[in-house]
Amino acid sequence: MESLFIINSSGDVFLEKHWRSVISKGICDYFLERLKNSNDVVPIIPTSMNSTNLVSINRCGVYFVTVCKSEISPLFVIEFLHRVVDIFVDYFNECNETVIKENYVVIYELLDEMLDNGFPLATESNVLKELIKPPNVFRTIANSVTGKTNFSDTLPVGSLSAIPWRKSGVKYTNNEAYFDVIEEVDAIIDKSGSTIFAEISGEIQCLIKLSGMPDLSLSFVNPRILDDVSFHPCVRFKRWETERVLSFIPPDGGFRLMSYHVTSQSVPIPIYLRHNIHLKTGEQGRLDITVGPKTTLGRTLESVKLEILFPKSVVNCSLVTTQGKYVFDQNSKILNWDVGKIDVQKLPNIRGSVTVMAGTTIESMPSINVQFTISQLAVSGLKVNRLDMYGDVKYKPFKGVKYVTKAGKFQIRL
Amino acid sequence: MFQSLLSLIIRAFDRDHGMTDSKYFTTTKKGEIFELKSELNSDKKEKKKEAVKKVIASMTVGKDVSALFPDVVNCMQTDNLELKKLVYLYLMNYAKSQPDMAIMAVNTFVKDCEDSNPLIRALAVRTMGCIRVDKITEYLCEPLRKCLKDEDPYVRKTAAVCVAKLYDISSSMVEDQGFLDQLKDLLSDSNPMVVANAVAALSEINESSASGQPLVELNSATINKLLTALNECTEWGQVFILDSLANYTPKDEREAQSICERITPRLAHANAAVVLSAIKVLMKLLEILSSDSDFCATLTKKLAPPLVTLLSSEAEVQYVALRNINLIVQKRPDILKHEMKVFFVKYNDPIYVKLEKLDIMIRLANQSNIAQVLSELKEYATEVDVDFVRKAVRAIGRCAIKVEPSAERCVSTLLELIQTKVNYVVQEAIVVIKDIFRKYPNKYESIISTLCENLDTLDEPEARASMVWIIGEYAERIDNADELLDSFLEGFQDENAQVQLQLLTAVVKLFLKRPADTQELVQHVLSLATQDSDNPDLRDRGFIYWRLLSTDPAAAKEVVLADKPLISEETDLLEPTLLDELICHIASLASVYHKPPTAFVEGRTAGVRKSLPNRTIPSASDHDNNVEATVIPSQDSLIGDLLSMDIGDINAPAPASSVIPQQHSNVDLLGGGLDILLGGPAPTAVEPATLNTGNGLLGDIFGLSTPATTMVSVPKITWLPAEKGKGLEIQGTFARRGGHVFMDMTFTNKAMQAMSGFAIQFNKNSFGLVPGAPLQVPTLPPAQSTEVSLQLNNTGPVLRMEPINNLQIAIKNNVDVFYFACLVHGQTLFSEEGQLDKRVFLSTWKEIPAANEVQYTLSGIIGNADGVAQKMTANNVFTIAKRNVEGQDMLYQSLKLDNNVWVLLELKLTPGSTEGTLSLKTRSVEVAQMVFTAYEIIIKS
After folding, report:
1. Distance (Å) from the C-alpha of residue B267 to the closest C-alpha of chain A?
2. Which of B340, B343, B397 is nearest to B368 (CA)?
3. Are A31 and A56 in contact (CB under 8 A)?
4. In what residue span(s) does the MHD domain sit (chain A) (predicted)?
5. Is B134 helix (H, G, I), strand (E, B) or coil?
6. Residue to substitute from A91, A364, A365, interface B, most B β-carbons within 10 A
7. Residue B488's Cα: distance from chain center in Å?
């Protein structure tokens, strides 16, 4: 990685950082040329300048474009860029053009601290926050009074220990450990309602506020269902392999402990759609959709949203819903129906007519993107058994586990 | 709500208290620089710092603030770390443009390198390395040397990276000052982060080293250190370590296994880069492991889940993963054969992900999952994205061609799509249906009428050309073919060249099929092509047709209506050697571009190409003697063997080669097969004017005339010297004539009495050679010689000999029985049927595991590639294809031994050099050395 350019959606380069020699931002033209044709720019494009390449990601409407030398691992760069954005979000709560412009200097310092000559230096938010304090109202006031800076002058303790993700000397008055088991159902459902593809991708998000150096082990009632896992570096892989127990010294604060995929068992589909859509050129089309719960183990479907992508030839629609509001965007041809909670007694329905422009062919079929949330349920059936704590700790923490199931990429084809 | 309100308040607060940086841009007037200058020279610390921040902010957006250089450098002497850091940031950017001024900073740097705070020591050495000014670099050496031995690991790891920076500025300085050795020492550092950075620095230095030769050789000991550090260092360090592990070839299978075991846990890492680099190492080690072991099977199974997991990451990660999976699927189709569903496209995938997924779906398609794939493809064909829809329609065509039993279903799916009347769908469908017609002639012609209905809507050249081809090809079944073609002719001048060529050919076809009523039409088109066109291709073709039609209509028929070569099923497969090279580059840019680094990196020589580990064979010199010298085993042991062969019907083990690739009956020379090798697109429906078959055409294409050279003959050597044969001397050699192996011998009687009653017997041998007839040697008077030629059959019992072509012979006469051994010349065992179809060649090459690949360096090559190919053909080594890669000629050759062992070869010749590299793949590697020797003999002839 030699240089980074941050580019907004209209193609202006508004930040550049060079880790080696300065490279003219003219090199971005290779990228901008492609951006003109499509917003989905291939993440890796060659340039004809000194056999360099541009590796880019697109997040929060901003493009992060790096200039890379020939034989680099592109995934390395992509992962690093995502990490950079994660850190920005961590520091400033969001990451868009305005935020970046407002915090140029901190961002510049961060970028310099994260990478040296193309080698990542510190990418753990713990370590970085000790080096460069995130902006904070009170500290700013304090600094202006005392003349201190928000830049640390001592080496962070964690940066070189075998556990770089945790700083020492953490102290809390209330010791808490929360685990959120979040599962997303990715599915493609065909016209007749049968499942073409479905899998569960889950993750365990932790919020750990524990003093000292706690050593935790988390066990499951049914670890067998986890066949494809990836872990935060803190997890001891050997113990997982032999005992199916997650043993780790946690970072301080929030982090993702593990993510997993469940494909081996048949995936229960929590929602179904009864739909009747008829589109014909030059005529009033009909649309009638009812949503209902399928396999939810007695839980309620909440925050249900439907996003229907119509073909270009659809001009407008006039519909009636029994529940929730709908919006049709004429430019993108997307119909959004915010259904909300589903009451089993009275299933939500949307119906009405759809206008198709006369004299056009219907070149594609509509498809529906579904969103929903089910709280207190991990659809895979994964259950935490217990959490044990070892290490130099003499307190009883408050422990909590929460389960939630959501729709991931959940599509219904019509 | 509350949150957003809060953030609003905070932001307002920030603005008032000067926390955000946007205010640094408020002054953009003329006096900006001047104003900053005075602020930088202010006495107040705070003001100074604010000013430097403003300078940095301007720099960040690309404004030139280099004029402030001396003022900023003045701020460097400070104990405020943030200020120091900001100044350093500024220096890194502008030192190059102000080298004389930058010298001012040197003293501070050197002092900071001695600071008690490790953070400052590290910062100083790090910044100095970034300043690419010679005068500063000179001062860097001493501090760097100290920092490499610093007590603090943070400083050491920063210094390690600095060596790589310095190497980039001045490689000679790094080598002269011994920094490389210091860096190598860091590989044994106690801190894993330091080890990881040392590895990273070393691999970068290796990459950029001018010689292209690695500066640090990996051995078992360093590998062990790296594997230990792998478990403890950061995710980024793990990538560096894995990448350098990938360059190491273990010495044996056990070592490979143990490395695999220690790397597999990385497959469960959350960082996609770590996962993919681990996969690279494992894919390479799989080549060394014997493919039938349990270990190998388990390992292969473990590779699928992490690959699948990568596909649920961010789109960019998915893209890189998919490009790599594309390679892995071609190399080891088994790994992902059950994972078809994860490649199903979601409509909100970015287009670059969609297209890659589609490609992999086709590669994974087979008879068992084709139904699923087809129904998916049909869905895709109704999506919004036009590019994607087109590719989906093409994919249906590829399925039809690849999975024969599905062809019918594919055709009906295509028909359904044509019914949608969506213009671009119809056009794509017609293009692929043309290919289906070519693959399955006379099967689906019933749909022609449906196709003709859409004639008017076609506006793309490729679709029009395809339609015209179909009309011409099936003119006899389309009643109004003449009208249809005539309607095209009206706008002949405006058509694309591709369509014009097709029209010309189609009309001529029509004329040949229905001469009665189309004379006018053909004359019209011929005059359009020859008189009104500027396109030389079109004119030439027009003239050729014209002349053919006017001189010999029968010949014209034979030429124009000749059987079309079939198109091949797998298109755009990578060439095996390229694929192997790319497998070594998994996770790197090469794997994304599907090109070797040499193709997109300047100044890279071909010498450093990576290749998968091979089983190697000792060089030729050891074996040269064998060609002349006859191995005579001790007589005692031989007698037993020879006696036992009289019993005859002991069931000898069959030769190791039981798998023989099926020779396809149809010859596809101009179609896809050739294109796979040449890497071009399939020629669109243009008939090769072919009267020849098989070799002839191949010869024409490659400029190989019918073989003028003859088979090599090896001079006779003495098999049995007179002193051992009690006066009988036998000289002999082997030759191949008319498809049989002959043993040509000269018997000389050097004894004092006549010899008679000659008989011959062979011991069991590797190729089952036995005399085809009794030995016919007349009574041999003293001091007389006689020439004998004995035809051999390969119907005898088989016994594996060492070397493989060793033949033990017993000759009896009235004096005694004599035993001797000789080597059958490899080339005499090359069968006349050794030519493989290109497709078969390609698929066989792929099927044979890489462990069965042996390489050999040929020397003393006479003549160019064509000459060599000619010589080889004369000796039953058949050239399948020839191509030129980066100035080197590659010959792809096949041969078949008489015992049905196929041998596939790739011969790489550098014009002007007498050396060449021969890569051989066969299921029976035992024959390799014999083939190499034969090559040497043929090539030197």
Report:
1. 8
2. B340
3. yes
4. 174-413
5. helix
6. A364
7. 43
**Residue B937 and residue B941: Cα distance in Å, rounded?**
6
Q: Is residue B169 less than 8 Å (CB to CB) from chain A? A: no
Q: Which of B19, B354, B374, B416 to mutate to probe the A interface, most A CBs <10 Å?
A: B19
Tokens for B792, please give them.
């051999």
Count CA within 13 A, CB hemisphere, residue B459.
4
The larger pLDDT score, comparing residue A39 to residue B362, is at B362
Question: Which of A149-153, A203-207, B826-830 is the most confident on average?
Answer: A203-207
Contacts of A105 in chain B (CB under 8 A): 21, 24, 53, 56-57, 60, 86
Q: Is B343 exposed, middle or buried (0-12, 13-18, 19+ CB in 10 A)?
A: buried
Q: How confident is the model at residue A161 (pLDDT cuts 50, 70, 90)?
A: low
Cross-chain Cβ contact A363/B382 below 8 Å: yes
Mention every residue, 6+ apart, whose C-beta is less than 8 A from residue A63.
A6, A7, A8, A9, A31, A35, A41, A56, A57
Burial class (CB in 10 A: 0-12, 13-18, 19+), B547: exposed
Nearest residue to A165 via CA among B267, B201, B232, B195: B232
Query: b or e along A58-90 (b: 16 or more beta carbons within 10 Å of the residue's beta carbon)?
Result: bbeebbbbbbbbbbbbbbbbbbbbbbbeebbee
B780-822 tens-digit pLDDT: 888 888 888 888 888 888 878 888 888 888 888 888 888 888 8
- Residue B34 contacts by C-beta under 8 Å, 6 or more apart in sequence? none
Which tokens sit at B117? Answer: 């705070």
Nearest of B442, A213, B378, B417 to residue B431 by alpha carbon: B417
- Shortest CB distance from A76 goes to which of B191, B273, B315? B273
Instruction: Quote the DSSP letter at residue B780.
Output: B
Taking residue B668's Cβ as centre, other Cβ atoms within 10 Å add up to 18
Q: Which residues lie across from B728 on neighbouring strands?
A: B749
Which tokens belong to B697?
A: 């055409």
By C-alpha distance, which of B348, B425, B415 is closest to A364? Answer: B425
Taking the CA of residue A253 and the nearest CA in chain B, the distance in Å comes to: 18
For every residue of B692-706, DSSP letters joined together read --HHHHHHHHHT-PS
Residue B575's pLDDT band (cuts 50, 70, 90): confident
Q: Residue B810 corresponds to which tokens in the numbers above?
A: 């017993």
DSSP B531-563: HS---HHHHHHHHHHHHHHHH-HHHHHHHHTPP
Q: What is the mean pLDDT of residues A341-345?
A: 88
Amino acid at site B89: L
Which two three-digit tokens encode residue B466?
Answer: 């395809």
Task: Quote the CA–CA distance of A132 and A109 in Å, as a whole number.
Answer: 8
> What's the CA gap between A316 and A283, in Å, rounded?
12
Identify which of A17, A118, A233 has the shortest CB distance to residue B235. A233
Are A141 and B207 in contact (CB < 8 Å)?
no
Q: What type of residue sits at position A113?
A: E
pLDDT tens-digit profile of B734-746?
Answer: 888 888 888 888 8
* Cis status of the peptide bond prior to B803, with omega within 30 of 0: yes
Contact between B828 and B874 (Cβ < 8 Å)? no
| Contact between residue A314 and residue A356 where contact means Cβ atoms under 8 Å apart | yes
A313 alpha carbon, distance to own chain's centre: 33
Lowest mean pLDDT among B560-574, B642-656, B904-918: B642-656
**pLDDT tens figures, A347-382:** 999 999 888 887 777 767 788 899 999 988 888 888
Q: Is the pLDDT of residue B864 over 90?
A: no
Q: Return the HEC string of B321-381.
A: HHHHHHHHHHHCCCCCCCCHHHHCCCCCCCHHHHHHHHHHHHHHCCCCCHHHHHHHHHHHC
Residue B317: closest CA among B265, B273, B274: B273
Counting every residue written for chain B, the total comes to: 941
